[in-house]
């Protein structure tokens, strides 16, 4: 007995191209969903870490301000050994206000230089590129 095999149909274990394309599409969809799920979980984990880090940085800032205040009090008390307490506090307070005024002026100048927040050099470069393309596009 001889078996005849239909050469037009897929043999046992072989799959048609349409089945393979369908499987590939399904697997790609699953892969994309899995990758998105993984990315979401990674961002969630990083967000938690960033939140904890920001909270700790805030606490560190408050603690540093308390420490700085204590050091200012120390300077006032040290000056109070040679001057009246009110004069020591006045001198330290005036000195701090002077430092704040200088820092504020320097910061204001830097802020003015940074505004408006447009990448002017990049915009100029793009405008120049557009001009070159226009000139070269003319017949």
3D architecture notes:
This protein is mostly helical and 139 residues long. It folds into 2 domains: 63 residues; 55 residues. Helices cover 80% and strands 0% of the residues. The chain is built from 3 helices and no strands. Helix 1 runs antiparallel to helix 2. It is elongated, with a radius of gyration of 36 Å. The N terminus is likely disordered. InterPro entries: Phage_holin_3_6 (IPR009937). Pfam families: Phage_holin_3_6 (PF07332). This is Holin-X, holin superfamily III.
Structural class: mainly alpha
Strand content: under 5%
Number of separate helices? 3
Largest sheet: none
* Unreliable stretches: 1-6
Helix content: over 70%
Number of domain units: 2
- State the total count of DSSP E strands: 0
- Average pLDDT for all residues: 85
User: Distance N terminus to C terminus?
Assistant: 78 Å
SSE ordering? HHH
Shape: elongated
Radius of gyration, whole Å: 36 Å
Keywords: Membrane, Transmembrane, Transmembrane helix
InterPro entries: Phage_holin_3_6
Organism: Amycolatopsis marina
Transmembrane segments: 54-79, 85-106
Q: Summed up, what is this model?
A:
InterPro entries: Phage_holin_3_6. It is built from three helices and no strands.
List keywords for this structure.
single chain; 139 residues; mainly alpha; 2 domains; 80% helix; disordered N terminus; Phage_holin_3_6; Holin-X, holin superfamily III
SSE order and pairing:
Layout: H1 17-79, H2 85-114, H3 120-137
